[in-house]
Write a structure and sequence with these properties.
The protein is mainly α. The chain has three helices and two strands, in the order H-H-H-E-E. The protein has a two-stranded antiparallel ribbon with strand order 1-2. A hairpin with a 5-residue loop joins strand 1 and strand 2. The N and C termini lie far apart (about 30 Å).
């Protein structure tokens, strides 16, 4: 089975955020951990937030957490 790079990054983000449920995770942290371009990762994260998989906190103390639906 083949998946796109976008899907691969989305799965990595969801697994990493899910593995850190006790704190907010930043895009920069994920980008550094997986050696992914921050710009491309922001596009992936924005789509995951829009579709309701992630909750994004903006401003001071910002970060990502899994959306509980």
């Amino acid at each position: 089975m083949r998946i796109t790079q976008h899907t691969d990054y989305a799965l990595r983000v969801l697994m990493y955020v899910g593995g850190n449920p006790d704190r907010l995770v930043t895009i920069a942290e994920i980008a550094e951990r997986f050696a992914i371009s921050r710009t491309h990762l922001m596009k992936v994260v924005n789509q995951l937030v829009r579709e309701g998989y992630l909750d994004g906190q903006r401003g001071k103390g910002s970060g990502l957490s899994l959306a509980l639906a």
